[in-house]
Here is the input.
Amino acid sequence: MLFSVVSVQSFCSFALFQTVRHGFPYLPTALAFDPVQKILAIGTRTGAIRILGRPGVDCYCQHESGAAVLQLQFLINEGALVSACADDALHLWNLRQKRPAVLHSLKFNRERITYCHLPFQSKWLYVGTERGNTHIVNIESFILSGYVIMWNKAIELSTKTHPGPVVHLSDSPRDEGKLLIGYENGTIVFWDLRSKRADLRAYYDEAIHSVAWHHEGKQFMCSHSDGSLTLWNLKSPNRPFQTTIPHGKIQRDGKKPESCKPILKVEYKTCKNSEPFVIFSGGLSYDKPCRRPSLTIMHGKAITVLEMDHPIVDFLTLCETPYPNEFQEPYAVVVLLEKDLIVVDLTQSNFPIFENPYPIDIHESPVTCTEYFADCPPDLIPVLYSVGAKHKKQGYSNKEWPIIGGAWNLGAQTFPEIIITGHADGSVKFWDASAITLQMLYKLKTSKVFEKQKVGEGKATAEIVEEDPFAVQMMYWCPESRIFCVAGVSAYVIIYRFSKHEVNTEIASLEVRLQCEVEDIITPEPETNPPFPDSSSQLPSLKSLSGSTNTVACEGMMKDSIPCLNVKARPVRMPPGYQADLIIQLVWVDGEPPQQITSLAVNSAYGLVAFGNCNGLAIVDFMQKTVLLSMGTLDLYGSSDPYQRQPRSPRKSRQFAAGLTELSDSPVSLELERCKSPTSVKGSRKLSLPTDLKTDLDHVNGHCTSPTSQSCSSGKRLSSADVLRANRRGPGRPPFRKAQSAACMEISLPVTTEENRESSFSRSRSSSVSSIDRDSKEAITALYFMESFARKNDSAVSSCLWVGTGLGMVIILSLNLPASDDLRQSEPVMVSPSGTVLTMKGAVLTFACLDCMGTLTHQPYEVWRDPYSADDGDKTRKRKLVMQSPSSSQDMGDHQFAVICSEKQAKVFSLPSQTCLYVHNITETSFLLRADVVTLCNSVCLACFCANGHIMTLSLPSLRPLLDINYLPVTDMRIARTFCFTNEGQALYLSSPTEIQRLTYSQEMCDNLQDMLGDLFTPVETPEAQNRGFLKGLFGGSGQAFDREELFGEATAGKASRSLAQHIPGSGGIEGVRGAAGGVIGDLTRARIALDERGQKLGELDERTASMMASAEAFSKHAHEVGALAPTPWNWELSILRPSLCFPLGKLSALLSLHPVLMLEVCSCQLAQHCSCSQTIRMPKINCHCTPLPFTFPEMSIHS
Here is the structure.
């Protein structure tokens, strides 16, 4: 979807474009398969359609109405798809372009659509409705035919009840002029389309769910609501000649087996050399309620039940032929589950499943955070794939994946891309995202370093979450050094190193006390209580609010210096890949649980990891395994604190807090929620997210509260009356709602009245702490290691750590590293405040450093070396450090630029003078959720995503606006938690709990996108039908010729009522093609494809012409031989055509088009003389030299 082209610079232009969507379709509802093109389509409850082919061919399209997709029907080998939606609209999609678009729509006004059927090689679509009527739609014009099968004409006149909605429609494999109609109440009607009457009717006392034909067209099978299968014969429709309940218990007294659950769908597929397959879903016994959903395969006397992990939505049997009147020869079953897609191999007796090549297991565990890396080192993807391939599952079918339609190529613009997803179960997945594809490379399980909690020990542990204690909250990855760091929801940090060797070793661990000992309160007046006490001061009163033992110790027990999880003390076997090097855990302090981590940074060159939360900052040397710094945020300022804060007695504060325990919106209740799991749900209670991005989104009136707090940033004091008025909302009207977890991604947006907005204090949001809690605690929201000028009088750069807080303060800490790398393992690292404090508006989100030329300066890093490799002996112990990026490895000059972005504004400072050169106020009514400094078109820009849905880019260092598009309002915290930018103008976010949406804001990427997308339609010749006898194929037996155009056309059937349905032209024509192509490159690509297709078709035409000429010569030879024996050639023709049959010229030409194989010259005047039918168009009288008339016969008729 192209939004607009906003700004064009001399070096780059910007546009916003959705590139591709990965993952499993969210809430699937429908399934379809094209057996010739071999592509699969899945419809969803949100109105989306995903079309899948060979790996790399993955297309997403969306109905504008957003109505659920009820059914999908391919126009087999035509490059088109029909979708029926819950808003009673039919849509025709054009699949011959890389971005499918709607060609036509038909909206039913008076009837609800329940079922659709499109016969093979037909342009007439049968549509069943809830009223029991059947309408017919012309696919080419998408207009209703006047031919209607009314329900009261289909059933017997003596029937007094309505048969219910149409649940099945299908034409007979034996005769296309007969239509089988199934009604919900158990009525089956075999309708003759020519005579417009019912040939036969059948009744069953159980509701029908589906019907399946035998390929000969003499029998059909029905599935019913009592778990039974009935087999009917057209010769005796009074009752089914076979009734079975496959999973019903057989009664001893010979009675009917017990009823079972409904069989929702059945398919009846025949084989030429074996027994037929009967495949159905559902039908299990009621006495096994805990049994999982299953698919049953009956083959001869063998019955196989395949249990599924999720409920079955739909399934399809893949067969060798698209013709319904031939032996089907099934070879696979595609099963669409609520959260998975599997394909079962029917050619092997044990029915193994195929290994799925699509990235549909993104949601295997709910995604809690994402990171995106473009243009990373090229050797990473092969290395990660090699270690990940060793852990793949076994037991898959040895045959190739059967869905192999479409075509895909790499395209011109390719570079290595990696996406990392963190999950609620503690797993981390690395994905190869190059060339807009997605393939899993490697899976890391972070929970393996901890002891498993035994059942029943929940109340005896110090965990701060009830479920998913290993959920990944934040990730930090250095691709060059391959250092990977994870922060978990249980207040721990794990540092991983990459190794190609398996090791068995103990895991080092550290415990850190990080607690705010003094209250960050603006200096109150002497006789006034503090406006909002520190939440830590209220924890003793938690017992009166909740008896939950995961947040506070049991009665009579004070937890102190206890980590939330237990690290394995024994040696642990670590396979090749990422191996834990150090685990850092925050511990309980005086009965207060550790707060979740809000910021994380690692530097491999320094050997340091820094992380912070709402209490303070910790810096750990992971080379020496020591804690360098553990300090409250207030202590980081030293004498440079811009606010006047007064330390208070913790006991006095707790006494004051006891008076506020009845307020559900107090920091205590918020603290309780923050200690919940990111994926647990208890009743209607909303839980905090792993990253805890709060939803201060009063979007109802178009107003978003800022995360900055005036009461703190401006030094404004609140009176106790203001506090009481702010808390007067009561338990039913909180100032905001916290978002649910990764498993429940919905969000509640409050209705904020003007009175509430005026009386409530300004709220402050950070990436981890609640808005109210931020007023009393200053969280660490951003960390960044870099070589910069720490002080104004510095003449050279030094190692620094930049710290950003929730109040918009930037603190620079100086790092004193050992002079030589040889002393790094023995000499301590010193951390000291530089005294530099910069101010921003709003919580700080990100930092970056530019050299004097405006080029991005990358952080120092250590070149990767295998820590357990012994190839080079002592040489491997020597570290190779890269202190500057290649672009700035030369003289950096005497100054540099520091880029700082908060949730309200961006600033560029000149260092070491610390002069603010540029400032840009990004938003006043909303706040930023994500900001990243990225490279694009050989330059640097600042990319921002705002809570009101705007995506913006700013030039650096001038901060000039380049792009501002209202893309996606944040109505769900899942988007806010997972949105991230990367280099080369790309971004991604979790569009649903199961799907990742990638987009680009680079016009160059948009122009090249057409070459990178896969083709859904490729020219494939439709397989020929099995040869049938000339007499049987044309004049009798099965497969009678049926002219639907003559029967359903306007000339015969008339026009349908205009009020019944409304035709809506679609955008799948020129406009859709233009929007999909996006530039001159797309036009050239289409021209090239058209030329290729035309050349291929011309080549096929030459081959067919040569074949026809050879056949004609052979037949001419045989015809002369036969003519020599017969009295006259015409008498011989009459002997074959039968004297009683006459062919008008119109129908004769139709026969010629069906069998353009063999030619026989027949005198046109002789044909006119011998044909006495009144419908025959007489040929003009021609004298002796009459014009030869070409006649056509099948080749096999020569021998008859």
